[in-house]
Amino acid sequence: MKKNYVVLLLFIAFYHHANAQATIINDNHSLGGYPIFNGAIFLVSDVDSTLWTSDGTSGTGTKQYAFNVKIDQDLGNGILNNKIYFAGVDATHGTELWVTDGTQAGTKLVQDFIAGTKSSSPADFIQYKGDLYFTDSSSSGREIYKLSGTNGTISILKDINPGIPGAFDRNSADFQISNGLLYFVADNGTSGKELWVSNGTSSGTKLLKDISDGNASTSFFQFITLGNQLIFIVVTATYSMDLWKTDGTNTSLIHSFNVPSFAYGAFGLMVFNKKIYFAGTDVAHGTELWSTDGNSASMVADIFPGSSSGIPNSSTPQLFNSVFIKGKFLFTAATDKGTELWSSDGTAANTQMIKDINAGEEGADPVLFPVINFSKLLEGAGIFDFYDRGTLFNGSIFFAANDGTNGTQLWKTDGTAGGTKMVQAIGGPNYGVGDDYFYTKTGLYFTANDGAHGAEPWFTNGTTANMVQDINPGAGSSDPDFEFVFNSKLFGTADNGNGASSDILDLYRIDATASPLPVQLMDFKAMLQPNAVQLTWKTATEINSRDFGIQRSTDGLNFSDIGTVAASVNSTTEKSYGFNDNQYLEAGSNLLYYRLQLNDLDGNIKYSNVLTVKLDAPTLSLKTYPNPVHTQLSILFGTASSKTATLKISDLKGHELYRQDFGKIEAIRLQNINVCGLAKGTYLIQLITEKGSSLAKFVKQ
Predict the structure, then answer these.
(1) Residue 585, SS3?
(2) Which pLDDT value is given to residue 599?
(3) What is the pTM assigned to this prediction?
(4) Domain Secretion system C-terminal sorting: where (predicted)?
(5) Residue 10 near residue 374, CB atoms below 8 Å
(6) Cβ(46)–Cβ(33) under 8 Å?
(7) Potential cystine with 364: which of 382, 401, 660, 677 (Cβ 3.0-4.6 Å)?
(8) Quick one: which H or E segment has residue 87?
(9) Averaged pLDDT of the chain
């Protein structure tokens, strides 16, 4: 009864439950979507693939708005400048690239790549550097195209495999964004399907490495960023999963597991404290907890030691939905006590079972409920990387588990045995909680079946739980699916039972007043300016917020504080902020990483996504120390790249007292000058290049 339309969710937040009831917005059209247009929700009908819009109310407030096209949901869509680009289907053009702004007039064909009714079928949409990238078919076969976010023009990025069939199948590009680069999987016709990289230009689009020799193709499983590297899993010819890395230039093997074809090698990559943790398999220990720092990989702990019939026991740790609590990560693992909840700080000594919830061999089979951040999908996050793993509800996280008596029920944990408790038994042992949930400021919405009402929406504040509404009256199930928030209300789909089949769903609004997190970050950008890196960001709402800490890194792992910007404390309107990093050249790197630390008055801390800035634009920087100076003046100067540079020292009357010419310089340079011969007083030092000049003062004592 779940929808299968392919859309991106742009907006997710935490909201307040206030004796909410569910109000039906639209009946029997299986509408699903997300807020994107000004004051409206974009929706797609899973019944007939038509385009709809809603202002959050029923009746005429929710209606079909486009009658000239339908969407091919299997091919997805992309978002650029508050418009949605999608694979549109009509009788005249087949399946081609269309755009919509939520109005009939603004829904139109963008380009007919293949004239007539034959379809080009655009797919693999992703936004990168302010442009929209996608694959499409033409006389060049299926290749990558770029739609400019500035002027709307469309151009082929690079004809990787000239002619038919081109470099891609539909929905095969597997786009990933990492450290300012766009990665994808393509076939150039001679190397098979391999990993490529692009900086958004044709010349900067290249094959990284032919991992499988000749025209044999390589299979890629999971991608995740660790510092300045993209870590990924390669499926070998024997179906072992080996660990690889790339920085966009160099691509190499981290660890080969060399396990039989029935094993997995590595899977379930998750970043924690500057390392990646995962389930790794070797012939001696089976599948256990492993880690890598990007250079080598090793087992962290043999959770289930020993063997059975000559085959090593495996704990098979599940890290894909891991959460972070009190300096440890939580996960599930199996031993002779069954599958239970575990925690680890990355060491063998502190990798321990939290609580034996279901004593004996059966195990509780817990399933953690981490906070989902769908906006990470827009950043090229992999299928295991869209969680806010460190975001908790009052210091705890919810999960489902079976204690052997009450069935699968809702539990919560703070990472300790004493703080791991069942919230409430709902129904008998054959009933309990489902797998759909949505965190709010004051609790959790989730699905549950109490045996009398079927699977319906419930809410808990962490202490007790109650059913929100029996949407499908009686023993029938509405199977709610919580989707998005609009105008301070939670929307989702459910089945009220009056449709032709259980697959026909209704759009519902849960009438709970919004209560967002202390800071809801809307936008965060970093841009290189002539003399600074300019950081800008916006918030939609703020509650109890103290300030924003600005942090910079040269490796994407170790961040330093470089400034603070005061927050608005409490705000329900959009606020804009900015910070200029004027000392960015002193970091001594051509690639910088920035993030925000969001600090609340109650001591809670949350981090923004990480942005990268490459110093590839003309910039000048000039610093002197010590200042005042007695004998030796150290001058730190730099440009992003300059053919020539000159340092001059002069007095305040303009008399030149020192001059040194340099050839080509890159990034930063340190020059020491003996100033013992200068009289006491104030002097000017000037850096001159073909790109401009920079001036500083120093005092000689």
Answers:
(1) helix
(2) 83
(3) 0.77
(4) 625-699
(5) yes
(6) no
(7) 401
(8) strand 83-90
(9) 86
Q: For tokens 């469309």, what's the residue?
A: 154
Q: What is the pLDDT of residues 174-183, one digit of tens each?
A: 999 888 899 9
> 181 — phi, psi (to 5°)?
-120, 150
At residue 146, the pLDDT reads 98
- Give the separation between CA 129 and CA 151, rounded to whole angstroms: 14
3-state secondary structure 472-504: CCCCCCCCCEEEEEECCEEEEEECCCCCCCCCC
Q: For residue 441, give the 3-state DSSP assignment.
A: coil
Alpha helices in 550-648 (DSSP H): none
Of the candidates 502, 516, 509, the one whose C-alpha atom is nearest the C-alpha of residue 482 is 509
Q: For residues 236 and 221, what is the distance between their CA atoms, to the nearest angstrom?
A: 11
The CA-to-CA distance between both ends of the chain, in Å, stands at 80
Residues 349, 588: Cα–Cα separation, whole Å: 38
Domains of the chain: 68-217 (2.130.10.120), 519-614 (2.60.40.2060), 621-700 (2.60.40.3880)
Give yes or no for a contact between 584 and 592, defined as CB atoms under 8 angstroms apart: yes
Q: What is the DSSP letter of 464?
A: -
Output the CA torsion 636→639→642→644 (10° steps): -30
Q: Write the pLDDT tens digit of every residue in 670-687.
A: 778 888 888 888 888 887
Q: Any idea what the Cα angle at residue 441 is, between residues 437 and 445, rounded to 5°?
A: 25
> 589 is written with which tokens?
């790197």
Whether 667 and 622 have beta carbons less than 8 Å apart is answered as no
430 by Cβ neighbours in 10 Å (0-12 / 13-18 / 19+) ranks as: exposed
Residue 299 CB coordination number (10 Å): 16
- Give the tens place of pLDDT for each residue, 15-69: 334 456 899 999 999 999 887 766 789 999 999 999 999 999 999 999 999 999 9
Task: Indicate the length of the chain as a whole number.
Answer: 701
Query: With contact defined as beta carbons under 8 Å apart, do 209 and 251 qualify?
Result: yes
Name the band, by pLDDT with cuts 50, 70 and 90, for residue 621. low
Between CA 134 and CA 273 the distance in angstroms is 34
Please tell me the predicted confidence (pLDDT) of residue 653: 73
Q: 198-228 burial by CB neighbour count: b if 16+ within 10 A, else e?
A: bbbeeeebeebbbbbeeeeebebbbbbbbbb
**Is there a contact between 130 and 104 (Cβ–Cβ < 8 Å)?**
no
Are the beta carbons of 83 and 95 closer than 8 angstroms? Answer: no
Rounded-to-integer distance, Cα 503 and Cα 481, Å: 13
Residues in CB range of 1: below 8 A, 6 or more apart: 477, 479, 495, 502, 503, 505
E runs forming strands in 166-211: 176-178, 181-187, 193-198, 206-209
Cβ(254)–Cβ(240) below 8 Å: no
Cα 171–Cα 236–Cα 160 angle in degrees, nearest 5: 40
Distinct helix (H) and strand (E) counts, the chain = 0, 60
The mean pLDDT of 521-528, rounded to a whole number, is 81
H or E element, residue 329: strand 328-335
